[in-house]
Amino acid sequence: MEWQQLIMDIFMRISQEMEGLLNGLTVEVINQQPRPDCNSIAWLTWHLTRSHDRNMSEVAGKEQLWISDGWHARFNLPPNPAETGYGHSTEEAAAFRAPDSNTLLEYYRAVLERIQDYVSGTLSETELKRESESPTFGSVNPVRKRVAGVISDGLQHVGQAAYARGLLKGKGWLGR
C-alpha cells in the first residue's frame, strides 16, 4: 500500500463519520447548541469543512471551493476566503446557521474530491517537504505539517460533532 492511500483512508474515515452523524438530523437539531456556550453540530461540521477547503486549496495552489463553486452563497455568507470559523466568538458561533445536513455533506464531498485529486495526483515525498504559506495565518510550514494539521483538526471536530449529537439525541445513533 502506498502512504498516499493511508492519508486518503483517514480523510474517508472523517467523511464516513460525518455522514453517519448528520444522517436524519433536522435543521433545528444541527443548528441547536447542546449548551449556550457550546458549538452546534452545524458549526462544527462547517468549520471542519472550511478548514479542509482552505488549507488543502492553499497547498494545492487553487482557489477555495467556498468561492469558486459558490458554496458561500448556499450558506448565505460572503465569499471571504479567510472565513472558516477560526477565532469565532461564542456569539458568532451561536449565530451561525447551516441550511440543512445535505448542504453540509455536499460541501464536504466536494472538498473531499479536491483532496483526493491532490493526494493522488500531486502529493509526493518532495511535495511533503515543500514550504507552504498560509495567507490566512501569515505562516510558512512544510506541506506535511499542514496536511497533518488538517487531519488532526478533522478528527477532533467530527468527534466533537458526534458527541454533540449524542448529547442532543441520546445514545444508539450509530448502531454500535
Give the total of beta strands: 2
Instruction: Give me the strand/helix succession.
Output: HHHHHHHHEEH
How would you name the CATH homologous superfamily? dinb family like domain
Q: How many separate domains?
A: 1
Q: Give the overall shape.
A: globular
Strand arrangement within the widest β-sheet reads 1-2
What distance separates the N and C termini? 29 Å
Number of helices: 9
Please give the CATH architecture. Answer: Up-down Bundle
The SS-based structural class is mainly alpha
Q: Describe the main β-sheet briefly.
A: 2 strands, antiparallel
Average pLDDT rating: 94
CATH fold naming: Four Helix Bundle (Hemerythrin (Met), subunit A)
Regions with little confidence, pLDDT below 50 for 5+ residues:
none
Compute the gyration radius: what is it?
A: 16 Å
The amount of beta strand, in percent, is under 5%
Q: What's the CATH class label?
A: Mainly Alpha
Relative helix content: 55-70%
